[in-house]
Design brief:
The structure holds two protein chains of two kinds. Chain A has one helix at 34-42; strands at 2-5, 9-12, 17-21, 50-56, 64-70, 76-81. By secondary structure, chain A is mainly beta. In chain A, strands 3-4-5-6 form a four-stranded antiparallel beta sheet, with no helix packed on it. In chain A, strands 1-2 form a two-stranded antiparallel ribbon. Chain B is built from three helices and eleven strands. In chain B, the strands form two sheets. A six-stranded antiparallel beta sheet of chain B has the order 1-2-8-11-10-9. The chains are: A mainly beta, B alpha+beta. At the A-B interface, β2 of A face β9 of B.
């Protein structure tokens, strides 16, 4: 698998560390309540199909990126820098 | 008073010639990491250009010949071979003793590197002035193309021995294929 780093271009999967679903970018407000925070911290969907994941280009430029891909077809649609991504 | 002996990272390991590949150590007198603060990249680049004639490199690029600036990650570049000017908008860190730098010359260099890194180092993809952060074996490294048959590989100083070993092994394997 090759991932399209927005800075480095297409790179081998070995250069990346997988963090998990990009929902972590969508942090609830401080006073959002227990239910919202419980959901944010512990509950993840496990979709067969399109996902948005956080990856760290640890052996490359060091950027955190959001990769949009499909877990069924293994197609990678694109990636953007996490600092610019909207949750 | 204790007499301290300065040792280069690859002292006793290089230079070496294996088949069609020459390995030599590169020792720029000074290496400074420059990391512009948020929104300051343009100003820092202009200040560098004024002082040394090199600008802050774009991602995956290396610029300059005497004083060189090599991109080494998001928002970071190494200034090599020159005193770092006083840059207001950037963090500047002396890393002169932090890096082991090996220059690889010879017609087989691309083939040797191709054995060690997932990066596409072919001429058509990775040209002179291109640089990349990638893996060499299991080490994170910075690879820069200096010429048609010439590359520079940088790793953290503590991994100098491993880098030389990996390059030697790959070069020996290439040489063995040539004579087989």
């Amino acid at each position: 698998m090759r991932l399209p780093c927005p800075l480095c271009g297409d790179r081998d999967r070995r250069e990346f560390f997988y963090q998990g679903a990009a929902v972590t970018l969508d942090r609830p407000a401080r006073d959002a309540g227990d239910a919202a925070w419980n959901d944010y911290l512990h509950n993840r969907d496990n979709p067969a199909g399109e996902t948005r994941d956080l990856w760290h280009h640890e052996a490359g430029c060091g950027a955190w990126i959001v990769v949009h891909r499909n877990t069924v077809t293994h197609e990678v649609y694109g990636a953007e820098l996490a600092q610019k991504a909207k949750a | 008073m204790v007499k301290l002996i300065a040792k280069s990272p690859c002292m006793g390991l290089l230079p070496k010639t294996i088949g069609a590949v020459d390995l030599t150590e590169v020792e720029p007198a000074l290496i400074t990491l420059i990391a512009p603060f948020a929104g300051q990249t343009k100003a820092v680049s202009a200040a560098l250009k004024d002082a040394l004639g090199v600008s802050f490199p774009a991602p995956n690029r290396a610029v300059g010949t005497g004083a060189r600036a090599v991109w080494v990650g998001m928002g970071q570049a190494l200034l090599m071979g020159a005193n770092c000017p006083d840059l207001k908008g950037a963090a500047c860190i002396d890393q002169s003793d932090a890096w082991a730098i090996v220059r690889i010359d010879g017609v087989d260099t691309s083939a040797v590197l191709a054995r060690l890194t997932p990066l596409d180092v072919r001429d058509s993809q990775f040209k002179r002035g291109h640089t990349a952060r990638t893996l060499v074996g299991h080490m994170t490294a910075s690879i820069t193309r200096l010429g048609v048959h010439s590359f520079e590989v940088m790793v953290m100083r503590s991994m100098a021995g491993t880098l030389v070993h990996e390059l030697e092994q790959a070069a020996e394997n290439m040489a063995a294929r040539a004579t087989a």
